[in-house]
Amino acid sequence: MSWKTENRSFYYALAPEPDDPVLDPATTALLVIDVQNTYLERPDRASLASEAERAHYDGWTPFHERMHGTVIPNIADLLTRFRARGIECLFARIACQTTDGRDRSLSQKKPGFNNLLLPKDEHASQMVPALAPVGDEIVVTKTTDSALTGTNLRLILANLGIRTVVCVGIFTDQCVSSTVRSLADESFDVVVLEDCCAAATDDLHRRELEIINMIYCNVMRANDLTSLMNLQVP
């Protein structure tokens, strides 16, 4: 089964196979979303006080295994290939401008998983070292899920002449999905690379890919994209 028939929701079960996306290097950009230190660093399991905390820790282990074993290496490889061809690589990260987070959006002030206080200059808010921007690669900071609505990314992409955005990062069902939907609503062509993204659970990851595929984006794997773009290993 190819990317053209995988990850289909009920809505698109009988739809014809999509055409190959237009992937002109001059008008295509890679967007790495929220692969930040805060999400990848973990405490020592033995330091956790309660069984509930240890069980929750264990519940996150498959995510960390996927990130370190698949997602981060795949994104790093893509960055190498894009950079070798001079294709734009951009980054979006969650970071507030103030130390107390008073500029955060409401969703990042509510209790729970998305209650984030990530001042822009602190270690926790930076991209993980393996995916750090180089040279003059553009980084936008946001206190929203969507990298488009929370920043000037729309203007940046327009100024760069970008028409197709390849989205990778975390979390598939949150900031990746919100960004993809915003880009699609602004009439950008969007590609999501399923083996360069992750959600808290594989089930959430898979379900979200089905939801956004074919209406907001084309979902494929990294090797599908590199083949379509003829991105040889430099």
TrEMBL record:
What's the source species for this entry?
A: Ancylobacter radicis
**UniProt key word Hydrolase:** yes
Q: What's the protein here called?
A: Cysteine hydrolase family protein
User: Which residue numbers delimit the Isochorismatase-like domain?
Assistant: 28-223
Q: What UniProt keywords are attached to this protein's entry?
A: Hydrolase
One Pfam match, by short name?
Isochorismatase
Q: Name one GO molecular function term.
A: hydrolase activity
Gene3D superfamilies from the UniProt entry = Isochorismatase-like
Alphabetical list of CDD domains matching this protein: cysteine_hydrolases (cd00431)
